[in-house]
Design a protein that fits this description.
- The chain has about 325 residues and is an alpha/beta fold.
- The chain has two domains: about 110 residues, NAD(P)-binding Rossmann-like Domain (Rossmann fold, 3-Layer(aba) Sandwich); about 180 residues, Rossmann fold, CATH 3.40.50.720.
- The protein is built from ten helices and twelve strands.
- The strands form two sheets. It has a seven-stranded parallel sheet, with helices on both faces. A five-stranded parallel sheet has the order 2-1-3-4-5.
Length: about 325
């Protein structure tokens, strides 16, 4: 019986090959590694049944008539779902869970950045200036997480050690450890009104595009900060700029944008109160290892004919 043909279209394809070998699955797939900056040979594409990749350039999936499963390397799969060449029978799985450690750490780093004067101190050291400053405590603050998935729940666990109260929304609300109250999405305004920091971790779907608009920004505290570590399309850029400039809210920390890299002429760069981060949220030196672990778990289920752990619901968009 022939083995399913697997193409890992990633620069670090060896990480995935070693992960399969470690799991005892190396002999179960016909493995091919192709660098992401190189095209997949046409004959290999025609035989490919399993594809591991970040996102497909236009036209590639059309040359893969036997493709049964796509393993994405990110949690969001909107680029795959929007591809016109993706066939209905091809199963999509995302890399949900691969950001579990790094993303919460970077979000906590953003909270410390907003409340501790470390940046100011570093800049003042350049001029040998001693300027007495006072940091604001995080203990006792309320963090509202819109989208209490795996990342949000891990962040809540870590935030509890800092005595931060966490509330948030979940599509199917139910009690969660370290979360004071879980709301339905319809009660988002209650979370906005009660939070000192509002964190966006929602998936990018038709329902969430332009989610943070002028009306929802107005529902936040004037002293509150907005943090977006999900997708740039969740925010109406012009509405956020207006809200920050008018002091409707304190400001924002943005790690994701509608277009990346963020164009040099975008007003986010020059709007006082908006902090621009170059999409550092989930990246780390062991990122491919984390994604490979998700892939191997799914591969084991795929070979057994079982439903895969991180399968994307096309109706929901994640």
């Amino acid at each position: 019986m022939s083995k399913p043909v697997c193409v890992v279209w990633m620069n670090e394809s060896g990480v995935y090959e070693r992960a399969l070998a470690h799991a005892g699955l190396a002999d179960c797939l016909e493995f091919h590694g192709v660098r992401a900056d190189q095209p997949i040979p046409g004959d290999l594409a025609a035989r490919c049944e399993v594809l591991v990749s970040w996102r497909p350039p236009p036209g590639v999936l059309g040359g893969m008539p036997r493709l049964r499963w796509v393993q994405g390397s990110t949690a969001g799969m909107e680029h795959w779902l929007g591809n016109p060449d993706l066939r209905e029978q091809t199963v999509l799985t995302c890399a949900r869970g691969s950001h579990r450690v790094q993303m919460p750490e970077n979000i906590l780093g953003a909270l410390f950045f907003l409340t501790k004067p470390l940046m100011h101190c570093a800049l003042e050291q350049r001029g040998s200036r001693w300027v007495k400053r006072v940091s604001e405590p995080l203990a006792g603050k309320t963090l509202g997480i819109l989208g209490l998935g795996a990342i949000g729940q891990e962040l809540a666990r870590k935030a509890a050690a800092l005595e931060i109260e966490v509330i948030g929304t979940k599509r199917r609300p139910a009690p969660l450890p370290h979360v004071a109250k879980v709301y339905a999405p319809e009660a988002t305004d209650e979370v906005l009104a009660a939070s000192d920091f509002v964190l966006l971790l929602l998936p990018s779907t038709g329902d969430t595009e332009n989610f943070m608009n002028a009306r929802r920004l107005a529902a936040m505290k004037k002293s509150a900060w907005l943090l977006n570590f999900a997708r740039g399309a969740l925010i109406v850029d012009a509405d956020l700029i207006a809200a920050v400039k008018s002091k409707m809210i304190a400001g924002a920390v943005l790690d994701v944008f509608r277009k990346e890299p963020l164009p040099a002429d975008h007003p986010f760069w020059q709007t006082e109160g908006i902090v621009v981060l170059p999409h550092i949220g989930g990246g780390h030196p062991q990122r491919d290892i984390s994604v490979a672990e998700v892939f191997v778990d799914n591969a084991r289920r795929f070979l057994a004919g079982e439903k895969m752990a991180t399968e994307v619901d096309r109706g929901l968009g994640y």
